User: What shape does this take?
Amino acid sequence: RHSSRMCETVPCLPTVPFLGSLLSLRSPLPPHLLFTQLASRYGGLFGLFLGPHYTLVVSEIDPVREVLLQKGREFAGRPKMVTTELLTRGGKDIAFADYSPLWKSHRRLVHASFSLFGEGSSKLQTIVLEAADSLCVDLQACRGQPLDLSMPLMGAVTNVVCRLVFSSSYQPHDPELLTVMEYNDGIVQTIARGGLVDIYPWLRIFPNKDLARLRECVSVRDKLLSKKLEEHKKTLIPGEPRDLLDALLIGQKGSGDESDITDDHVLMTAAEAFGAGVETTSTTLLWTIAFLLHHPQVQEQIHAELDECVGRDRPPCLSDRSMLPFLESVVCEVMRIRPVSPILIPHVAMQDTSIGGHHVPKGTRVLVNMWAIHHDPKQWEQPDHFKPERFLDTEGKRLTPSCFLPFGAGPRVCVGESLARMELFLFVSRLLQRFSFSVPPGASLPDLKGRYGVVLQPLSYTVTVTPRH
Ligand code: HEM
Ligand code: PLO
Assistant: This one.
C-alpha cells in the first residue's frame, strides 16, 4: 500500500536490546556535534534508539522544513521526560508540554499577553533602555578592571523580564536576585540534558544528585513565584493588566477552554517566560561579546556604524534598527554560529506520518539538528567562520538566508522571538555605543566551544570594558 519510497527504511545506528543505540553514542563530543558527525556517515535523516525510544535526527534543511513547517502540526508533540515534568508540574507550561487543545489555547493566551507588552508597545523599549543604562553605570564603575560579564548581564536581563512579567525589579546586590540567578543556573545544569533519567524514568527511584539539585531549585523557584502570584491576585484590576502575570490572570478567567487554565498553568508560564527570557538573552549577549573579542575589526565596524547613524548624544532606539544593518547582521551571525538551542526541544510525531517519503510511526521522537543546518557547507560558505556580511547583500542591506532558523519555525516556533530580537538589538547597540570591549592584558581569548546543556553557554571569560567617551 505504500509507495516504494515509503518502504525505504531510514538508516539506523547499531542497536542492542535494552540499551538501544546508547553504546554508539558514547563520545566526548556534545550531542549536537556528535549528531553532526554521525550525519556525515548515516545521512541527513537517521534513526537511533535512546533506550526504548525510537528517535530520528534531522540534519538537512528540506526534511527540517517538512517537520517544522509543512507537517508542523503532526510533529508538534513533546516527549514526557522526568526532569521537565518536575520543572513544569507535569507539563503545565508551553515549551515542554505535549500538544493538546488546552496547550493551544494556553499558547495563544501567552502570545496575546506578550504582544501587550512586547512588539509595538513603547513599554518594552523603555524597560530595556533603563536596564541597559543601569548596566552601563555598573560597567563604568569597574574602571577598566578585567571582569566576567555574566553576572552584570544576567542581572540586567533579569530585571527586564522581571518588570515585564511582575512589574518589579532588583537592585544590583539584592539577595533575591542572587537567589534567582542561583536557582536558574541549577535548573540549566540539570534539565533535559539527555541524561539517563530522561531515557529510563524508573531510574528516578535511585539517589541522583542532579535530580535532587533540580528538585531543590524548583522548590526555591516555586516559593518565590507563588508569593508574586498571591500579591498580584490581591491587587489585580480586571481590564488594567500591569504586566504579563496580570494578563495571564485576566485571560485565565476568559470564556470556554481558557477556563481550564489553572493557577498552576499561570505560575508555570510566568516561570517559563522568566527562565527563557533570562537564559537565552544573556547567553546570546555573552556569545556576542566573546566573538567581538575574537574579531576586533567587526567591533570597530559596529562602532563606526553607530557613530554615523546614531551619534553619541542619545541612546539607540528601535526605530534605528533599519539604519544599523551591520549591527543586526552581527547579532544574526552570532545566533547562526552559536544557536542557544542547537537541537531545539525534542519534537514528537503525534500520528503516523512521514519525512522525505520515509514512514514515521506515531510516537517517534524527532531531534532537529539546527547546529548542522547552521553549519552546513552546502548552504554556507566557510560555515565555521564568523562573517556577519553573509547577512547583508552587496548594497549592505539586510537579508535573511532561508537556512537561518535560530528560533525554530511552525507551530512550536519560539513565542519570545520578537521580544528577544528587540532586546538583543537594544542591549548590543547601547553597550557598543558606550564601550569598547577588549581582552585584558595577559588573559587569553574566550573559548568558543561552549558548554552544552538546555542552552549552549560560553565558558566564562574576562573582558576589559573601556568607555568610549
Ligand atoms: C521555544 C530559541 C528567547 C520563550 C524556543 C525554541 C527555540 C528558541 C529554538 C524551540 C523551538 C522548537 O522546539 O521547535 C530562542 C532564542 C532566543 C529565545 C534563540 C533568544 C536569543 C526567548 C524568550 C522567551 C522565549 C525571550 C520568552 C520570554 C520560548 C517558549 C518556547 C520557546 C515559551 C516554547 C514554544 C513551544 O514549545 O511552543 N525558543 N528563544 N524564548 N521559546 Fe525561545
Ligand atoms: C532556563 C532555566 C529556568 O529556570 C527554567 C527554564 C524555562 C524555559 C526554558 C529555559 C529554562 C531554557 C531555554 C529554553 C526555555 C524554553 C525555550 C528555551 C529551553 C530551562 C529554548 C532556547 O528552547
Q: What stands out?
A: The first helix runs from residue 4 to 7.
